[in-house]
Amino acid sequence: MNPYNFNYTLFPGQIHFGQGKIDLLPTLLKGYSKAFIIGEKRVQPIIDRVGEVLDADRLYHFGEVIQHVPQGLVDKALAVCQAQQSDVL
Predict the structure, then answer these.
(1) Is 42 exposed, middle or buried (0-12, 13-18, 19+ CB in 10 A)?
(2) Which domain holds residue 23?
(3) Residue 8: its pLDDT value, please?
(4) Going by C-beta distance under 8 Å and a sequence separation of 6 or more, which residues neighbour residue 19?
(5) Are the CB atoms for 60 and 88 separated by under 8 Å?
(6) 72 vs 70: CA distance, rounded Å
(7) Is residue 89 part of a domain?
(8) How many CB atoms lie within 10 A of CB 41?
(9) Within-domain flag for 43
(10) Average pLDDT over residues 47-74
């Protein structure tokens, strides 16, 4: 068993981690209209790959991430998520 490749289900959420999981996104996100992705600028290549797999209009990347996130930034991310009408994080 590879400890770096797994699925974990916590109702109502799920975590899919490991190589090749991005390719599963169209199936996993079927039924959702827009994904909201939070990630630093340094993970842009991963975000770009997600954008290749999903339609660009089904994805919003919030890149304003810092260590020890202050409440104001959390509030901003939530407001943007709501404005984008994202229904999956």
Answers:
(1) exposed
(2) 6-83
(3) 74
(4) 5
(5) no
(6) 5
(7) no
(8) 10
(9) yes
(10) 93
